[in-house]
Amino acid sequence: MFNINQFLQDREDRVEYQNSLISKFNMPLLTVRTNYPGENKKEVIANEIADIMAQEIEILFEKKIIHNEIIDKLEGKIYLFIIKDNPENIKLQTIKLEENHILGRCVDIDVYDEKGSGMSRQQFGLGKRKCMLCDELAFICGRTMKHSHSEIKEHITKKYILFQNYLMKREKISSALADTALEGMIYEVSSFPSFGLVSPVTKGSHDDMDFFTFLDSSFAIKNGLKEMAETIYSPLPLDIAFKKLRTIGKKAEIEMFKATKNVNTHKGMIFLLGIAVSTTSRALYEKKEFSDIPAIIKEMTKDILKDFDKINTSKALTHGEKLFLEHGFTGIRGEIQNGLDIVFNGSLQIFSETYEATESFNKAAVQTLIYLMGKVMDSTIVYRHDFDMLEKVKTEMEEIFQKGGIYLENSTVIFKELEDRYIQKRISPGGSADLLAVTIFFYKISKYYKKLQMQF
Known about the structure:
Layout: H1 4-25, E1 29-34, H2 44-61, E2 65-73, E3 76-83, H3 87-100, E4 107-112, H4 138-144, H5 149-190, H6 211-232, H7 238-260, H8 267-285, H9 293-300, H10 319-327, H11 331-337, H12 341-358, H13 361-373, H14 379-384, H15 387-402, H16 411-424, H17 430-455
Antiparallel strand pairs: 1-3, 1-4, 2-3
């Protein structure tokens, strides 16, 4: 039997405890609970929705969460979070979550500042929350009991089912994108001639890796790419999502090194394909077109060159960091900040036209690689040699492409000579190879993007 006195006492105790936490940490406090009607606030669906939204808060604020705990009494399951951030930012982020998440209207997310004062939507020029069932203000519907408890519960249940369907859809889409990314990596390393890159018939300009090393590495990082697609198939703000993706990328690097016995086969590929996979996932989530992906890349990575502001010269530097410090070379970060224009307005068309003309993935890949090598400021070549060598390679490959590339009458002889010379000089166009894999990924995705939109 429901005990109203105990319910009121639990509420009073909780408010007092919340204030004690705010005083203890001198930081804002956030609470999450399901907006569930009736006396029994602890029904399974109410608890599960609270759990789901609490997980979203953990993803949203992550390292800013100083303390969290659960109170589970007659009021139902309530999550408490102490967050190291200004209360205005916390409230704005939670407003976005409430408005954009499928279950956002099913919960109350309250934010209190360091003095224990509740933050309101009105402080940001926003109106009060609407009723989850109609366009009336929520507090008016609640006061007049416009909707019965059964109506509200039915609505919440429908939202919960909709969320479960979303999870299944996210799983299917992220799996499809990761599979296609894997195809891109396999097609790239399988193409030949490869002009100093690893292929099925040569180790190229490398002594520590071969074709099978690349296969092992490709399969090892597939799960990381899938996790990236899952993470961003959500209302998570793009700047926060990008930070999550980079964390996932670091985990994928660890898996790569395990699979290759500490050989760096795909570090740049993880970064590039991770962005390709995740922005495609976001476009599908937002029901946008394939042509909108470059704009999403630009928005998500608009601050990417700020990476160079954080270089710590007391630690071991990456190839890219060394080249930036010595020459102001932005490399692949510059390409990304530009929305991968070299792919969407260059290599993607080359690959598509060549494949349609030859019906050969290998010829399309080789022609595209030649094109990219004539355009890309390839950090791998610069790091192994210098800018003079990069310019020689670019000039040489640009001339070959302009003369026809794979369509040259004596292309077999020319390519064999180039392959041998590049291997001898240890030239390896790794940056172009990464962009080739990304090109193949987007080519394949473009062919069934509409199907992805409609099927899922």
